[in-house]
Amino acid sequence: xxxxxxxxxxxxxxxxxxxxxxxxxxxxxxxxxxxxxxxxxxxxxxxxxxxxxxxxxxxxxxxxxxxxxxxxxxxxxxxxxxxxxxxxxxxxxxxxxxxxxxxxxxxxxxxxxxxxxxxxxxxxxxxxxxxxxxxxxxxxxxxxxxxxxxxxxxxxxxxxxxxxxxxxxxxxxxxxxxxxxxxxxxxxxxxxxxxxxxxxxxxxxxxxxxxxxxxxxxxxxxxxxxxxxxxxxxxxxxxxxxxxxxxxxxxxxxxxxxxxxxxxxxxxxxxxxxxxxxxxxxxxxxxxxxxx
Length: 292
Fold this sequence. Notes:
The chain is α/β, with parallel strands linked by helices. It is built from seven helices and twelve strands. It is 21% helix and 17% strand.
């Protein structure tokens, strides 16, 4: 049994907060967690009534921090807390319970010049709460996960127990690719219908965004998005070793699904030659993300 397995067997979950019932059900099913441990809406949690715990892993919505969002920060122009302002709920609990360790994860934009004030506030809050803090931007692809996902990790250790020896793990070679995790045969029900494909690939200029500028990017898969903010999901980027150099992507979009060498492909999908999954986002800010 390795150190990781020993650690997992030695801890128990005290509580978690998730107000979306479907997300809560998924989390509980995947990790074998008792649904009754869910405290629900964190804004309604009385920190003084919580049981003691040693480790607090937390975050706050990146919606108002991410490059794909509206970038309002923690407080909007009217002085109200944004969705990313949920940070204040987390620090409220941390200050009261003072666990031994705290781990915060968020988008790397939090460390950018634009949000320097917010990020410094976080560091100052953690210091005043009694913690020594270490932070670094890590990419999932450097730690055994076949996904191109950069995030800042903020590790805080209570000052009375910190020995000053903490360091982030060194990157390691990636031994698996996305294809190693996917099924070779996909049920027909998981493919979009022709009606939905036509909806996504609509020629209506109001919705198409950059669909007309589709291209084959030979370097890495771009971020997938739902286009929730202002348009339908753009089917702009394609990367696939099965596509010829002169692939007619407009035609592929028109017919929706194409086959090559007995393999079936869905229009609007993104394939990465390097075998890495792209980061997913909702694009609520209405910004189109592409790779040059």
